[in-house]
Request: fold
Amino acid sequence: MKEKVMLTGVRPSGNLTLGNYLGAIKNFVDRQDAYNSYIFIADLHAITSPQNPQKLKEAVYNCVAMYLACGIYPSKTIVFKQSDVLEHGTLGFIMTFQTKMGELSRMTQFKYKSLAQSKAGVDTGLFVYPTLMVADILLYNTSIVPVGKDQQQHMELTRDLAERFNKRYGNTFLLPDVYIAPVGNKILNLQNPLEKMNKSDNGDNKGTIFLMDDVEIAKKKIMSAKTDSIARVHFDEENQPGISNLMSILSKITGESFESIENRYKGKGYGEFKREVAEVVGNLLKEIQARYEKFNDKKLLDKILYDGACKAQIVASETLKRATKALGLN
Ligand code: AMP
Reply:
């Protein structure tokens, strides 16, 4: 019997990227046998910015089919949609009240994303969504959360708030550990390797590889990735961020160490190295896309989400009951 719980989630906004796969989903897939595993579609997080309802529905299906295509098995992992389990909203509301304004304003994601919104006014959702994330994690007595490096601060907030609640109201929540993999925890934009690879790549999407990209286009994106004039395949994030990013992508997919990659490419140019990365990424995309076609069936996806929500809700409602009892609300 697996005792420890692993959980992660992805917002269904835009297509999933190579960054999502390498930073979060792959780490989850590689461990789904060892844990009591939950993965959810974070559709409540998606509505923290305005969405087209029809497109959001489609994005949810797209995201579940993608999870399955990436290697998540509903027989091993509980796959569900966040909004189907109402406990997320209620516990999110409760956790917001355990939080200081200062804690939320210090979140780098908030600082960064609110800059883009500052002219039209910053959405409250952008400010408070980390407390919903806290609830997402605590509801399932989660031990480990595989996420990319951008989520580290939110994970620290989760531990802080769980600890604060436990101190104030008695032992209610398990404190989770964050799992940030040593390699591939921050895949960078191929055209601007000082920035994270994001779903919304301002402009022509040349810096972002989407898992559904045409394979030849994805390979071209790798071939035209920004590098440097040092002309040495070497892992040095500060001075060679572009090459280091491509090395992380290669290493995370194949498992080969940086040292071994460096040795193989001693005295060789970037062109040859990029061709190998392009080939490896192209093959990964081909595999994922072939499986995606198999799972892109709304009836099948609805059944998986329904079954998943029923199972998730049993655990979530127990945790919420514990929290409301501790608060004197029931
Ligand atoms: P999001 O797309 O913001 O919902 O992120 C979903 C998951 O993917 C989170 O665990 C992120 O940390 C992870 N992630 C997103 N972009 C990247 C990236 N460029 N590199 C590594 N992990 C990422």
Observations:
- The beta strands are 5-10, 36-41, 77-81, 144-146, 177-179.
